[in-house]
């Protein structure tokens, strides 16, 4: 268990650092009213999560490497990738009601939570 925690932590450290570097670079060269750096890492992270899960379905993959990449690195690089993947699974399984419910609750409650969080110290 400790080995898994350490490998996830190390992957998370690297993912967070890569996120910071990518976001800063993109926003420096492509300044815009929306945060294109964040959009880019969310799209890139979602793509890589899809590639890795597709690969994992057909190959035997080390659980440590899986935890390092999927939970640690991509989890810190972007949590949007997990949300996207889980939503896509609902859609592919024909769970349309739960797909829409997941989208609605995730977006609306997370926005509400950020707003409430901002109000805490006002």
UniProtKB/TrEMBL annotation:
Q: Anything known on activity regulation?
A: Na(+) is not transported, but it plays an essential structural role and its presence is essential for fluoride channel function.
Species annotation: Campylobacter novaezeelandiae
An annotated GO BP: cellular detoxification of fluoride
NCBIfam families linked to this entry: crcB (TIGR00494)
Q: How does it sit in the membrane?
A: Multi-pass membrane protein
Give the protein name, as stated in the record.
Fluoride-specific ion channel FluC
The record's section on InterPro entries has:
FluC
- UniProt entry tagged with the keyword Transmembrane helix: yes
Q: What does this protein do?
A: Fluoride-specific ion channel. Important for reducing fluoride concentration in the cell, thus reducing its toxicity.
Q: Name one GO molecular function term.
A: metal ion binding
Q: Where do transmembrane segments lie in this chain?
A: 5-22, 34-56, 68-90, 96-121
Subcellular location field: Cell membrane
Which keywords fit this entry according to its UniProt record?
Cell inner membrane, Cell membrane, Ion channel, Ion transport, Membrane, Metal-binding, Sodium, Transmembrane, Transmembrane helix, Transport
* Annotated signal peptide: none
One of the record's GO cellular component terms: plasma membrane
Keyword Transmembrane part of the UniProt annotation:
yes
Q: Which HAMAP family match?
A: FluC
Catalysed conversion reaction: fluoride(in) = fluoride(out)
What family does the Swiss-Prot or TrEMBL record give for this protein? Belongs to the fluoride channel Fluc/FEX (TC 1.A.43) family.
Instruction: Say where the protein is mainly found.
Output: membrane
Query: Which residues are noted in the entry as Na(+)-binding?
Result: 75, 78
């Amino acid at each position: 268990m400790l080995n898994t925690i350490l490998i996830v932590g190390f992957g998370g450290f690297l993912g967070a650092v890569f996120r910071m570097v990518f976001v800063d670079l993109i926003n420096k060269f492509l300044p815009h009213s929306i945060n294109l750096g964040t959009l880019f890492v969310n799209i890139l992270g979602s793509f890589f999560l899809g590639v890795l899960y597709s690969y994992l379905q057909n190959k035997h993959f080390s659980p440590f490497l899986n935890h390092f990449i999927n939970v640690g690195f991509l989890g810190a690089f972007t949590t949007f990738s997990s949300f996207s993947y889980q939503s896509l699974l609902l859609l592919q399984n024909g769970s349309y009601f739960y797909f829409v419910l997941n989208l609605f609750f995730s977006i609306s409650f997370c926005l509400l939570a950020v707003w409430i969080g901002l109000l805490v110290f006002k």
